[in-house]
Design goal:
Length: about 100
């Protein structure tokens, strides 16, 4: 299972991030997976839930695995630490 997106971007990697009720040191654990985009070209990207990696403020964690029944937040961001213009359009998104 995972999330499938149809996107057009800017040749930079973006990140899908989910948050559940899981905590580390009192703060939310982020579960994320990166995906590429192509400038000027629509593409379909499939992101598998088993590929979600837990982290805390950008620092990788060994666990726990994401409890998908507890997802309370979803975000898409660019996290390559380059302060340059970027673009991302999402035509659709679906869970499959």
């Amino acid at each position: 299972m995972g999330i499938k997106l149809r996107v057009i971007g800017c040749d930079r990697a973006h990140e899908l991030r989910l948050a559940t009720n899981a905590r580390y040191r009192g703060s939310c654990i982020a579960y994320s997976v990166e995906f590429p985009t192509k400038r000027g070209e629509w593409s379909e990207v499939k992101l598998r839930f088993v590929d979600l990696n837990p982290s805390h403020y950008g620092n990788p964690l060994d666990g726990p695995r994401a409890d998908l029944s507890q997802v309370g937040e979803m975000s898409i961001l660019i996290a390559d630490k380059h302060e340059t213009p970027f673009a991302l359009k999402i035509d659709w998104m679906q869970v499959e």
